[in-house]
Amino acid sequence: MLFEQLYEKSVHSAVFSGAGGGGGCMVCHSNHAVHYPSTAMLAGPKSVCAGCHDAGTAPAGTATQMAAWLDGLDAALKKSETLLTSAEKSGMEVSEAKCA
Length: 100
What we know:
By secondary structure, the chain is mainly α. 59% of the residues lie in helices and 0% in strands.
């Protein structure tokens, strides 16, 4: 499913549809200086979410949890890449695993 489809099904779609400046993606990602998606957008004092959701609220907690999950996935991917590189340097065939 495309990100746009997920967004359209989210609560944010209805909330941002009437926002000035076009709403939608631009509310969080900007119009001209497009903000690349990162976990910093979700959690922390400078996060996009903090503009609407106060620290300690359920939505802020959800954003923080999402950021933690994404950071965990990133760490797992990096670990997998390191293991594949090590296996490849040891002479193992890893092309199928690298393409997945």
